[in-house]
Amino acid sequence: MIENKFGMTKAELAALMDISAVRADCSLEDVREAAMLAGKFGCKCAVTLPYLTRDMKNFLAEFDLHNKVTLCGVAGFPFGGETTAQKVFGAKEMVALGCGEIDMVMNIGAFKSGRYDHVAEDIRAVKEACGDAALKVIIETGYLSDEEIPRASELVCKGGADFVKTSTGFVPARPTNLHMIKIIKQTIGDAAKIKAAGGVRGLSLLLSMKDAGACRFGLNPKAAMAIFNEFEVLK
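Above: the chain's sequence. Below: its structure in token form.
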């Protein structure tokens, strides 16, 4: 039984998950579905795009989940190319709405240009804007080589963020894999936590990534339900 072998209940599995509704074509119904799923299973966070974040908050309140599921907002999503001022404004707006966590995208263009100090300062400014809210920084591993992933992870830590997050999920040609998680963990140790997202399909992969050091997983409702169903079948 998986829950015996890994010492994990279904509730503990759910607590590792952030349920997302962040596609450009997400509707109110998609946001409502994400909120309901997060509440039904006891997931850690529910996250959507800035325009719909107030709606996500309202759905969580409607379902009496606002004290059980953390509202998560985004800044500089999904490309990371905004100015630092824009990201800071976005983070502050999300925190003011009640978000307890913020997912931001690293300035990938600056990183690829070798402007590493700017990347770290960009992260540091957003972290300051977050106040008590946790900051997860997406390094978009799908655009990075195995040599670049460590450098990006180090910059996230240098900027003071709470999590290195792998991907937005919008680089399907190179989804997050176990090798990437191992690289990040070997690089940062316990300096920050790791969130795997973009390609986490299946219970076996999720558990392997957890063993490698990831402690949070970003999933859309369809992927999350598939993993919950697999857990039920195999337990």
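The chain has eleven helices and eight strands.
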